[in-house]
Amino acid sequence: MTRIAVIIGHPLPGSLSHALAAAYAESASAAGAEVRTIDLADPSAATAHPTTRAQLRHPDAGGGELDPAVASAIDTVDWADHLVFVYPEWWGSAPAVLKAFVDRVFLAGFAFRYRGDGRGWDKLLTGRTARILHTMDSPRRWNRWVYRDSSLWWLRRATLWYSGVRTVGTTVLTPVRGSSAATRERWIAAAARAGKADAARTSRTERRAKASVRT
């Protein structure tokens, strides 16, 4: 059974991001995956910005005691085989709640570890995969050539790749503003198809077992 964590990076409940995430999660669950959802519109979610240096490190790396919401989110990310991020582009990036989530959860000592010589790092989330479902109003060419796809690359490259997570799919849905109900239904149906496909992915446990047989 594939374990999937869905992170909704929109601060307002009832958003298109929530509808996409719900369709994805329901389809993945129906296809046999175990799914946990972290909704960053929930006031109890791990979205408070760090206020001390210790909050940027896991206790195993010299950080302080974890806030319960942060500890719960770390447990979910650690548990998951596959991470799904659903969020809109705001100001060429992502909503502050998603950035705060990354700052509080992808901690040194949990997501990565610097090596003693200071010249490299260990990717501690290796073996996991990810999918990004991303909405925006910008035309694709504008986003690529003017914004340099910044709303995607900070997460895909500077966070997930840095931590060892391999992104297996990126879906960009645009433009949201002015889109018809029929268009949104097609997008929601696409999210459901992605959930079904990801449920069939091989779990980390199964991949390790196959690797040990080959060796």
Structure in a nutshell:
With 215 residues, the chain is an alpha/beta fold.
Provide the descriptors you would attach to this structure in a database record.
215 residues; alpha/beta; Rossmann fold; two-stranded antiparallel ribbon; 7 strands
Note down, in words, how this protein is organized:
With 215 residues, the chain is α/β, with parallel strands linked by helices. 40% of the residues lie in helices and 19% in strands. The chain has a single domain (3-214), classed as Flavodoxin domain (Rossmann fold), CATH 3.40.50.360. The chain has helices spanning 16-30, 68-79, 96-105, 140-145, 150-163, 181-199, 204-214; strands spanning 3-8, 34-39, 82-88, 112-114, 121-123, 129-135, 166-173. The strands form 2 sheets. The chain has a 5-stranded parallel β-sheet with strand order 2-1-3-6-7, sandwiched between helices. Strands 4-5 form a two-stranded antiparallel sheet. Helix 1 runs parallel beside helix 6. The longest helix is centred in the last third of the chain and has 19 residues, at 181-199. It is globular, with a radius of gyration of 17 Å. The model has no long low-confidence stretch (mean pLDDT 94).
